[in-house]
Write a structure and sequence with these properties.
Largest sheet: 4 strands, mixed
Distance between the termini: 40 Å
Shape: globular
Strand content: 5-15%
Oligomer: single chain
Number of strands: 8
Order of helices and strands: HHHHHHEEEEEEEEHHHHHH
Strand order of the largest sheet: 1-4-5-8
Radius of gyration: 21 Å
Structural class: alpha+beta
Number of helices: 12
Length: 379
């Protein structure tokens, strides 16, 4: 397998890089640069520009409004977006996770209703999976959806929902009956439905990247079920596989950019020759190299007709740990620089959520042990 860009990929990368440079103006203040990705007006404007420029739904089938391009092109755009600081945009959940799930499981009516809006940036989605008592163990979901006539009555609570504070729709996983994996159902829920309340969750950074969603007798139309009732776990696995699949290129490129910034900081620091610091840096660099090769291997398998599977969990697991180590190291080295200290302290605090969001490390290890290595269940 040739791991270099083909001539077509290289030309696409150059076009994408030039477009991103114009669409995402440089901002000197890191806090301001990040804050704009949580501003609804900026998000929708950027999403519409993505669509107009042909960068939305790169890998979606053409019949659903996508470009039908190879996954390699999607990976390239994710890489270049991360390097430009354009990774934190709420539309990524709709474009990268919910949209492909609707393509795979949706009815013709659902595809016609949701996919164009996601593509244009008119619909911003969040995920309603994690819960307070279940964490990211989806089989333990307790939020209920009870069929009552032509609607499901939903009661329960979701936590750690990224972008829920700015989203208008949610891909919700709820229990319609049965135990553990059985009896789970996915619904496409309008967050403006009476009985739905979204509360931003203030984090240790002072920001609210996540939110809590409460459902108190919310009536969701029965035709909002994605897939069949009881298929919720399989539908959710499709969503998570896409989240941990090509999105791994975003995570890896982001880590690569942060590592580049750290090396520049270290070169100007009295700790540049400290053997302990250099050893920790080498470990992080090795993890980054492993992430690159793992992403490329998975991309090769997907390009040959495979589907994102449980092995994609290793990318998120390794990235979350490496990113935390880099954030801690950066905060230590930056201690003598007031501006750098603020940046790296913020990254350190934010990184505490890395091993929780997108599936806790404990659950990801279970997935890898049971579904990849074939080991017996531990609990």
């Amino acid at each position: 397998m040739d791991l270099r860009d083909s001539p077509d990929e290289a030309a696409f990368r150059a076009r994408a890089r030039a477009w991103l440079a114009e669409a995402v103006p440089a901002v000197d203040d890191p806090a301001a640069a990040r804050a704009r990705w949580f501003d609804r007006d900026f998000l929708t404007t950027y999403a519409r520009r993505l669509h107009a420029a042909g960068y939305a739904g790169l890998g979606w089938p053409v019949e659903y409004g996508g470009r039908g391009l190879p996954l390699g092109h999607q990976a390239i755009f994710l890489e270049e977006s991360a390097r430009r600081g354009a990774t934190e945009q709420a539309g990524v959940i709709g474009l990268g996770m919910v949209g492909p799930t609707v393509v795979a499981w949706g009815t013709p009516a659902q595809r016609a209703h949701y996919l164009p809006g996601i593509m244009r940036g008119d619909l911003l989605f969040c995920q309603g999976f994690s819960e307070a008592e279940a964490g990211s163990d989806l089989a333990a979901v307790a939020t209920t959806a009870r069929l009552d006539g032509d609607a499901y009555v939903v009661d329960g609570q979701k936590l750690w929902s990224s972008y829920a504070a700015v989203a208008d729709h949610c891909l919700l996983l709820a229990r319609t009956g049965g135990q553990r994996h059985r009896g789970l159902t996915c619904l496409l829920v309008d967050l403006r439905t009476p009985g739905v309340t979204v509360r931003p969750l203030r984090q240790i950074t002072g920001r609210a990247d996540f939110a809590e969603i409460s459902f108190d007798g919310a009536r969701v139309p029965a035709d909002a079920v994605l897939g069949e009732p009881g298929d919720g776990f399989r539908v959710a696995m499709t969503t998570l596989a896409h989240e941990r699949g090509t999105f791994g290129f975003t995570l890896t490129a982001r880590l690569e950019e942060h590592l580049r910034q750290f090396v520049a900081l270290l070169r100007a620091s009295p700790l540049a020759d400290d053997p302990g610091v250099r050893d920790r840096l080498a470990t992080i660099w090795t993890d980054l190299a492993a992430l690159r090769w793992t992403n490329l291997r998975l991309l090769g398998e997907l390009a040959e007709g495979g589907e994102p599977g449980p092995r994609t969990s290793v990318v998120k697991l390794l990235w979350s740990q490496a990113n935390q180590r880099l954030a801690y190291l950066g905060a230590e080295v930056a201690a003598a620089d007031e501006h750098a200290t603020a940046l790296w302290r913020d990254r350190l605090l934010r990184s505490r959520g890395n091993t929780i969001e997108g599936g806790t490390s404990e659950v990801l290890r279970d997935v890898l042990a049971e579904r990849v290595l074939g080991l017996p269940r531990s609990r």
